[in-house]
Amino acid sequence: MKHIYFFEDGKSSTFPTSREDALLYKTRFYTSDTPCDANHHHNKRYVINNACHACLVDVGQMIKAAIKGDVDWSNFPQPIINAIDLVIHNNCHVANEPCGYGHLPIRTNTNHCHYCLENRQARQTAEQTGETFYKCNNPCRKCGQRSRRRVKTGSCENCEKQRHSVKSDIQNMMNKSPDLILERKDAKTMGIMVYRTGKPCIHGHYGFRYTSTGGCIDCLKGF
Description:
Blueprint: E1 5-6, E2 12-13, H1 19-25, E3 29-31, E4 44-46, H2 53-68, H3 78-89, E5 93-94, E6 106-107, H4 114-128, E7 133-134, E8 149-150, H5 157-176, H6 184-190, E9 194-195, E10 209-210, H7 217-220
Helix pairs in contact: 2-3
């Protein structure tokens, strides 16, 4: 049974109604409240790159027409020219539907997405050669950057740097204000990532807690 989502005006959708909600629910699509500029009646978007699903389907049909010689494709954008070349020279074909990662609908002779297969092969090669990171064609779902990915976990290098920066900021604040007293609601209002009430948690810690979850940092560290 599919989950039903709702816009603020009460209209329903089979996908989350914002990219943020889609990231939370870990879906590959979301329904935008703004229709696509090109396909005015369509608002189904990919979470990973915000691409319009209907537009990618139309591009697939355009590639088919170009291969048949029905349209002049010499002035097409380079990614589409590359896709046409894959079909003509690399034993690929154009699928009716794009893959779930928002790539152009180009499939291999085994019916796998050509671009997804490239990413998997890049990761396997990096693993075999002992590399720490590999180059991924997909933008990160969270930060939207085409950053390198960690071979072992697939995590985005840019997101890792951001998390490290946030952790450093939190640690600096706790070091500078060890006796800070601040309620959680006030920390949320002020945009502060940690707070301290001066009252013990259930395990007797008097330290800082995360504003987002209320979790005791000392408990999370295993103290």
